[in-house]
Amino acid sequence: MSGYPSLRPHSSSSKVIDLPDGLYGVPDAMLNGLQACRASSSLQTVHPLQASEMVWQDHQMKMDFVMLRNSQGLHAPLKLQMEHFAVSQMQRLPCLHSSNLMMDTLTGADDLIKFEDILNNPADSEVMGQPHAMMERKLGLL
């Protein structure tokens, strides 16, 4: 084996959710319903591919790094990981939106049109915070 990650999807957890009993000894679904279950870490996946799809990008990056290591040597994936780390540290002021164009270029996400690109663009948001308050909060002064 050449060190490639497994291609089979694996479930992240297989625990059964137990809701606490309510006033009459029956689980109170209205009080401890769906949102409380989603927040718990003991959720069971709905479909076997759900866990695989959640970590698809990381899995693909690991496979690319292993292939790169096998073909070019250890320096190539280390260089790319260093570039990813350096790009992830760059950021704007907290009140300004960042498009993360450098990270998208490194990962190849600039060639893809995703759901977030059309319907969930934070730059189109009408809410703007106060720059001084946001910077003081980031620095821990508030």
Automatic annotation (TrEMBL):
<dbReference type="GO" id="GO:0005737">
    <property type="term" value="C:cytoplasm"/>
</dbReference>
<dbReference type="InterPro" id="IPR008012">
    <property type="entry name" value="Ump1"/>
</dbReference>
<dbReference type="GO" id="GO:0005634">
    <property type="term" value="C:nucleus"/>
</dbReference>
<dbReference type="Pfam" id="PF05348">
    <property type="entry name" value="UMP1"/>
</dbReference>
<protein>
    <submittedName>
        <fullName>Proteasome maturation protein-like</fullName>
    </submittedName>
</protein>
<comment type="similarity">
    <text>Belongs to the POMP/UMP1 family.</text>
</comment>
<keyword id="KW-0143">Chaperone</keyword>
<dbReference type="GO" id="GO:0043248">
    <property type="term" value="P:proteasome assembly"/>
</dbReference>
